[in-house]
Amino acid sequence: MPGVAKLYRLRLWLRAELIIFPLMRGSKWLAKFGTKMTTDYIAEKIADPELRKKLLPDYPIGAKRILFSDDYYDALARPNVELITTPIAGLTASGVKCVDGSEIEVDVVIYGTGFRTNPFLSSISLVGAGDTLLKDQWKDGAHAYLGISTNGFPNLFMMYGPNTNLGHNSIIIMSEAQARYILQAIQGLDQRDAAAMDIKPEVESAFNDELQQRLATMIWSKVEASWYIDGKRITNNWAGSTQEYLRRCKQIDWGNYVLEKRA
């Protein structure tokens, strides 16, 4: 029943836009509500007060990625599971050695180091106009107009680029907006008999200055280190709602680009 699926998606989208996004933007009331709801949930699932203490975050709700799961705490509360938060000093022949000198004997170690999101496109060497390397242009943190175009790299269109990650909603809606924008660009180049388009530096700079000013007031700026941050810039997350991003990507403003005519 496609209609039911669409209604379900609409429900999820509205919940994220109307409740979770305002929390990220700094709503004190929603922060209190969200904190109470999550701490009450932990208390319901974790009976052991010492384990509960280990699991309670020491940062504001939303400052780091929120985990949506209904079996995570149940797994940690099982009698055959032990949560040890003492930092690790290293590995030994028989197990794991902690900084307090204790050693935990194990048969298997799953070395989960997380994931690295910065620098962007770190495994790809991209060369733009004037032999500029993208990694050099982004040495102080990645940036792009709408997360799609960056000056000096004509016809380079990115999906899930800088500042298009979300902390409150589904990334799929962002990817859909980017795909439509890029399709417009390709069709528009053809219609204008142009070979390439390059975002104007002042347009990209103004866009990113605005973005960073807004991000500085949001919940992600309340912690010193997270995967959202690269240096002093929040390079991963979008500062607005998905509705705003859809609106800004709906129609290309060709005045923001320098076009290169076909030879």
Describe, in plain words, how this protein is organized in 3D.
There is one protein chain. The chain is an alpha+beta fold. The protein folds into three domains: 81 residues, no CATH class; 31 residues, no CATH class; 133 residues, FAD/NAD(P)-binding domain (3-Layer(bba) Sandwich). The protein has eight helices and seven strands. The protein has a three-stranded antiparallel β-sheet, with no helix packed on it. Strand 1 and strand 2 form a beta hairpin. It is globular.
Task: Map the helices and strands.
Blueprint: H1 2-25, H2 28-45, H3 49-55, H4 72-76, E1 88-91, E2 95-98, E3 103-105, H5 134-137, H6 171-191, E4 194-199, H7 201-215, E5 229-230, E6 233-234, H8 242-249, E7 257-261
Antiparallel strand pairs: 1-2, 2-3, 4-7, 5-6
Helix pairs in contact: 1-2, 6-8
Total helical segments: 8
Q: Which outline best applies?
A: globular
Which structural class matches the secondary elements? alpha+beta
Strand order of the largest sheet: 1-2-3
- Please give the CATH architecture of the largest domain: 3-Layer(bba) Sandwich
Strand content: 5-15%
Alpha carbon gyration radius? 23 Å
Please count the beta strands (DSSP E, at least 2 residues each): 7
- The string of secondary-structure elements, in order, is HHHHEEEHHEHEEHE
| CATH third-level topology of the largest domain | FAD/NAD(P)-binding domain
In the residues, how many domains can be counted?
A: 3
User: For this structure, what is the CATH class of the largest domain?
Assistant: Alpha Beta
Distance between the termini: 52 Å
